[in-house]
Design goal:
By secondary structure, the chain is an alpha/beta fold. The chain folds into three domains: 127 residues, OB fold (Dihydrolipoamide Acetyltransferase, E2P); 146 residues, Response regulator (Rossmann fold, 3-Layer(aba) Sandwich), CATH 3.40.50.2300; 65 residues, no CATH class. 51% of the residues lie in helices and 20% in strands. It is built from nine helices and 14 strands. It has a five-stranded mixed β-barrel. It has a five-stranded parallel beta sheet with strand order 7-6-8-9-10. Strands 12-11-13-14 form a four-stranded antiparallel beta sheet, with no helix packed on it. Strand 4 and strand 5 form a beta hairpin. The longest helix has 138 residues. The protein is elongated.
């Protein structure tokens, strides 16, 4: 037996009629944006949620649409009031009507928006961030850092294409004092949902090289005030407050002061103002140096004048004392000269007597020694003559022996005794292996030569 049923379209139609009957007039609804998309045709599509305050869990969710004709009116009003664009995490109060369509389901059509509600919620959250930083004891940490006497090595966090960054560089490079600055850019996204995380990441990169820098400058050039929401975030403010280098901000807005501005060491309105502050800070140090040099020079001149006066007074007292001392020393020198002349004459006389006596002794000893050496030379000459004659005789006998030996070994004498000598190709044959079959041999005898062929 089939159960009574209706079609899906009939169900959708009943829901559509019920919703239309229940909400015949527009209603105000509060919610939090979890997603926002701008369509190229001008429509704005939102996803609204509600979270449980205790558990922070989502307890309700609904799609919402602001049609292009309405969004053209709501958008400038909302942004001029809150100075922010619609973004995820923002709480809003909207007026409209729920509508159910059989194909697309439930949707809330927005026809109006109360920007003051969002502004109040933003102010509340901003105060909560400030109170949390103060409770954690970090709100004044960066402002309590001592600013270096010269800010010459600057880490800049900005978009590389920002006009404000270019103005900042131009101001530093073309300062009239000719002061040179070192600037290193750490690129970051400066607006939108990813801006806060990007700036924090850039701060982390600067922290890795903190010893190379004197300060950090966070700046953005121009842009809508609605893009400043990231500078009110707790995470960014916490990192700025606890950063070990002084942080200068030039975020480029005049009406509001962001939480990042509050916790930074020095808040300035624009990147150009940051550059001017850095230049003037260096000029102040330069002026201090000039004044210090002038003070030291003046003090030194006074010291030299005083020392010159004291020296002249001391000289007036010292000259007579020196003259007296010189007179005493001159008298002592003259007495010493007289004594030295007498002593020198006496010493020279004694030396001459000793030298004469030594000469006489040397002359006698030399004559005796000369006689003995002359006798020794005569004896050596006789021995040398005898030894030379004996050596010559011995050498003569040896030469006679060698001559006789050579005569006995003469080949002619050997042949005369009946011996023969055999040659092969001009070489003496000493062994049978020196010849081979067919060689022609020549044998020398006492009275001639014999030729033969080896068989």
């Amino acid at each position: 037996m089939s159960q009574p049923s209706i079609t899906l379209l009939e169900l959708g139609t009943r829901i559509k009629n019920a919703v239309a009957a229940a909400f015949d007039l527009p209603v105000w609804v509060t919610g939090e944006i979890s997603d926002v998309r701008m369509h190229r045709n001008g429509h704005c599509y939102l996803e609204l949620i509600q979270k449980d305050e205790a558990s922070n869990q989502v307890v309700a969710r609904m799609r919402a649409t602001i049609w292009a004709s309405t969004f053209r009116i709501i958008k400038p009003y909302f942004e001029s009031t809150t100075r922010q664009s619609l973004s995820a995490g923002m709480k809003i109060l909207v007026r409209g009507t729920p509508e159910y369509q059989e194909v697309y389901g439930l949707n809330f059509n927005v026809i109006n928006m109360d920007a003051t509600y969002t502004l109040g919620d933003m102010a509340r959250r901003r105060m909560e961030v400030i109170a949390r930083l103060q409770a954690e004891g970090v709100f004044d940490m960066n402002r309590e850092l001592e600013l270096p006497v010269v800010l010459q090595r600057i880490a800049v966090i900005s978009s590389p294409t920002a006009a404000g960054y270019e103005d900042f560089l131009d101001q530093l490079r073309n300062n009239r004092q000719g002061i040179r600055f070192y600037v290193k850019l750490f690129p970051a996204i400066m607006q939108g949902e990813r801006a806060e995380a990007s700036i924090i990441e850039a701060l982390g990169q600067v922290y890795e090289h903190e010893d190379f820098f004197d300060c950090v400058a966070i700046m953005r050039g121009g842009g809508a005030s609605a893009d400043l929401v990231c500078f009110d975030g707790y995470d960014l403010a916490l990192h700025v407050a606890q950063f070990p280098l002084p942080v200068l901000t030039g975020i480029g807005h005049d009406r509001d002061e962001s939480v990042a501005d509050m916790v930074a060491h020095t808040q300035l309105k624009t990147p150009t103002a940051v550059a001017e502050f850095i230049i003037h800070h260096a000029m102040d140090f330069e002026q201090w140096l000039d004044q210090a040099l002038a003070d030291v020079t003046s003090a030194w001149d006074e010291y030299l004048d005083d020392a010159h006066d004291r020296l002249e007074r001391a000289a007036g007292r010292f000259v007579p004392l020196v003259q007296q001392h010189l007179e005493r020393q001159r008298g002592r020198l003259m007495r010493f000269t007289d004594q030295l002349g007498h002593r020198t004459t006496t010493a020279l006389t004694r030396r001459q007597v000793r030298l004469h006596q030594a000469g006489q002794r040397l002359q006698g000893a030399t004559g005796q020694r000369f006689g003995r050496e002359q006798v020794r030379l005569l004896m050596l000459r006789e021995r040398l003559q005898r030894a030379s004659l004996a050596l010559i005789k011995n050498r003569h006998q040896h030469l006679n022996f060698l001559d006789e030996k050579m005569r006995l070994h003469d080949p002619v004498n050997i042949l005369n005794r009946g011996f023969s000598v055999t040659y092969c190709n001009g070489r003496v044959v000493k062994h049978p292996s020196d010849v081979k079959s067919g060689d022609v041999l020549t044998t020398l005898l006492k009275s001639g030569a014999i030729s033969s062929i080896v068989d």
